[in-house]
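This part of the workshop introduces the protein records we will be handling. Getting from the letters to the C-alpha cells is the skill we practise here. The record below serves as our worked example for the rest of this section.

…
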Amino acid sequence: MTTHDLPLHRDAAGLATLLQCSARGDQAAFAALYDATSARVFGLVLRVLRDHAQAEEVAQEVFVQLWQTADRFDPARGTALAWILTHAHRKAVDRVRSSEASRRRDLAHAEHTTQIPYDETSTAAEASLDAVAVRAALATLSTPQRRAIELAYFGGHTHTEVARLTQVPLGTAKTRIRDGLLRLRDALAPLGVEPA
C-alpha cells in the first residue's frame, strides 16, 4: 500500500487498515492514524486528567505505545477507535493513580515529619467527626445511590462513566447521584456538615 492509497476517512474500516499498516512499520499509515485520532485521544485524556500539560504528555505516550503494540489490534474484538481510546483511557487513569499515590506518599511523609500544634487538635477532631457523619449518612442511601455517588465523588468518574460502570442509562445514573446527594444533604444538615 502506498501513501496515496491510505484511507483518508475516519471510518472504522479505514482506521483498522491504518492500524494494521502501522503494525507492519508503515510510518505514513501511522501518521495518518495520528491525524485521524489525535484530537479524540487528547480530548479523552484531558477529561480524565483535567491538566493540559499532563494530557499532552500522556497523549504522546499513548501514541508511542500504539506504535509499539499496533500488532496486537484484533478487528474481531472491536473497532480500531475503541481499541485506541481504551489505551488512552487506561494510560490517563494510570497517570491519575500514579499522581494520587505520589500525593498520598507526600502527605503521609508530611504527617510523620510535622507535629500538629495543640490549637489544631480541635479541627482534626471535627474533621474526624464529620467523616463519621458522612459515612453514616452514606449508609442510609440505597445501594444504587451509594454506588453512583462513590464512583462519581470518590472515584472521580464522570456521569457517563458511572452509567457505563453501573450498566444503567445515563439519565438513571444522574438521577441516582442527584437523589443521593439530596438525601445526604438532608441527613447531614442537622449536624452542620455540608456534603462535598
